[in-house]
């Protein structure tokens, strides 16, 4: 789940969480869970902040897989004159692990540059370079590529879908790329998740929730990659994660000891990462959240105990004892779903190495768009989360149900009453819908008069 959202979830349940975290050794830092983002350092650096990660076999092009990584939480489309852009001093990373050791075998790294501005507006169109590393060999597979501008309004950015389509590029290795502003495809009734609404409704899917993220945007990097470049030929399962690096000197200013380094290319340090949704928000204790963001999946064993003994299950038990008991120790089901892949039943197991990655079994056929079940594997739709993640997958409902014990004989119809993105997702690359325009400002005037 996106970090902003769960930061707010934590805020909503802060009293309970602090009480619980204190008994778990979270200590005084647990109080900082009341801030609006999940980890103290990255909350000060939104342009480097991963929000969501998706990976799925493309339903319309099943010989390809699509990876979508989003950054910059809570973009208000009307945030002029300095609208949102990728940070020109960050490095944006998408990693693919082909052999289950938690280390990347294929990496894509993105660097952005600003363009001269015009009038009194910052220019939101950026150029960028894509570097692909396979093993130790790095190749520039795209340079001088352009993002579309942000969706400012009908005068500055008329016919936005056509403008955005110009932001789709072919890379030198046969993949397709898009980078730029999009609608935030994540959906959640953040305010209600822990406020009894979902459970009061009895069946989460009918709770009549409010999409807290409706009307907000994010910055998206999307890749569509021939499966032949990803498939390992044996278990056909890849692990994917996204991250952001900043120059070590800049990071050292923010944290006392820059102990964790980014991959390759000395001089970079990782400041954010995202594999499975929800992890740093509600699995990792607050005093370790910055460290988790700086760690690579190969070193995740140190965090396994928090997956195995989830604080969230303890919180559920405290908030909703009438629906318990919620098992909060020895959760081997969560270790599998989030750390190794599911092996019973066999779905996307990648071996014994515990590493937080979004695992996608490329040999499982995609589900047609009109047949997708948002509860994914829980509903028998094996092409969805936790086998990779699609834009349509209802991560809040799935996560609440799985943590609640759906895989260990404790099924509850948990959910937040929000079942889909407020904007229809596209059925072609890059799949994430166009952002609202600043002029439309859907959070303010609801019926603007277009010129
Ligand atoms: Ca590997
Ligand atoms: Ca949305
Ligand atoms: Ca939901």
Task: Explain what the structure shows.
The protein is built from 12 helices and 12 strands. The protein has 451 residues and is of the alpha+beta class. Helix 2 crosses helix 10. The N terminus is likely disordered. Strands 3, 4, 5, 6, 10, 11 and 12 form a 7-stranded antiparallel beta sheet that branches. It has a 5-stranded antiparallel beta sheet with strand order 1-2-9-8-7, with no helix packed on it. 54% of the residues are buried.
Features:
single chain; 451 residues; alpha+beta; seven-stranded antiparallel β-sheet; five-stranded antiparallel β-sheet; globular; disordered N terminus; binds calcium ion
SSE order and pairing:
Blueprint: H1 3-12, H2 14-23, E1 50-57, E2 64-75, E3 90-97, E4 106-114, E5 126-134, E6 137-146, H3 160-165, E7 168-170, E8 176-183, H4 190-193, H5 197-200, E9 217-226, E10 237-247, H6 248-254, E11 268-274, H7 279-283, H8 289-294, H9 304-308, H10 311-319, H11 332-340, E12 358-361, H12 395-404
Helix pairs in contact: 2-10
This protein binds calcium ion (3 copies).
Concise summary:
This protein has 451 residues and is α+β, with helices and mostly antiparallel strands. It has helices at residues 3-12, 14-23, 160-165, 190-193, 197-200, 248-254, 279-283, 289-294, 304-308, 311-319, 332-340, 395-404, and strands at residues 50-57, 64-75, 90-97, 106-114, 126-134, 137-146, 168-170, 176-183, 217-226, 237-247, 268-274, 358-361.
Oligomer state equals: single chain
Mean of pLDDT:
85
Regions with little confidence, pLDDT below 50 for 5+ residues: 1-36, 257-265
Total helical elements? 12
What small-molecule ligands were found? calcium ion
Q: Which range does the strand content fall in?
A: 15-25%
- The amount of helix comes to 10-25%
Distance between the termini: 38 Å
- Tell me the total number of β-strands: 12
Radius of gyration: 21 Å
User: Which structural class matches the secondary elements?
Assistant: alpha+beta
**Major beta sheet summary:** 7 strands, antiparallel
The coarse silhouette is globular
């Amino acid at each position: 789940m996106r970090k902003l959202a769960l930061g707010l979830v934590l805020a909503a349940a802060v009293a309970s969480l602090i009480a619980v975290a204190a008994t778990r050794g979270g200590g005084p830092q647990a109080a900082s869970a009341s801030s609006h983002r999940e980890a103290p350092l990255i909350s000060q650096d939104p342009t480097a902040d991963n929000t969501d990660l998706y990976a799925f076999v493309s339903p319309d092009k099943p010989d390809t897989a699509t990876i979508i990584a989003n950054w910059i939480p809570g973009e208000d489309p009307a945030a002029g004159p300095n609208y949102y852009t990728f940070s020109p001093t960050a490095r944006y990373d998408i990693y693919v692990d082909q052999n289950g050791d938690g280390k990347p075998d294929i990496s894509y790294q993105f660097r952005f540059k600003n363009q001269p501005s015009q009038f009194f507006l910052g220019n939101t169109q950026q150029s960028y370079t894509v570097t692909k590393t396979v093993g130790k060999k790095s190749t520039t597979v795209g340079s001088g590529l352009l993002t579309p501008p942000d969706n400012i309004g009908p005068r500055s950015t008329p016919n936005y879908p056509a403008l955005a389509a110009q932001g789709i590029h072919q890379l030198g290795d046969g993949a397709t790329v898009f980078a730029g502003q999009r609608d935030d495809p994540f959906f959640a009734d953040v305010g209600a998740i822990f406020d009894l609404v979902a459970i009061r409704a009895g069946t989460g899917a009918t709770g009549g929730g409010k999409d807290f993220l409706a009307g907000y945007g994010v910055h998206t990097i999307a890749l569509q990659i021939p499966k032949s470049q990803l498939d390992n030929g044996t278990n056909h399962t890849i692990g994917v994660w996204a991250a952001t690096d900043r120059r070590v000197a800049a990071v050292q200013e923010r944290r006392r000891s820059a102990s964790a380094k980014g991959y390759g290319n000395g001089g970079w340090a990782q400041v954010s990462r995202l594999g499975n949704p929800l992890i740093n928000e509600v699995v990792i204790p607050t005093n370790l959240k910055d460290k988790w963001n700086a760690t690579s999946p190969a070193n995740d064993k140190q965090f396994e105990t928090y997956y195995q003994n989830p604080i969230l299950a303890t919180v559920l038990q405290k908030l909703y004892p009438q629906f318990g008991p919620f098992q909060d120790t020895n959760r081997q089901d969560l270790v599998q779903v989030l750390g190794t892949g599911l092996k019973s039943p066999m779905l996307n197991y990648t071996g014994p190495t515990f590493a937080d990655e979004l695992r996608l079994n490329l040999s499982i056929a995609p589900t047609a768009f009109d047949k997708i079940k948002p509860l994914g594997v829980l509903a028998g739709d094996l092409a969805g989360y936790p086998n990779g993640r699609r834009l349509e997958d209802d991560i809040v409902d799935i996560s609440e149900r799985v943590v609640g014990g759906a895989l260990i004989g404790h099924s509850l119809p948990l959910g937040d009453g929000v079942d889909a993105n407020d904007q229809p997702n596209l059925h072609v690359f890059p799949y994430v819908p166009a952002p609202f325009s600043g002029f439309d400002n859907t959070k303010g005037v609801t019926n603007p008069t277009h010129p």
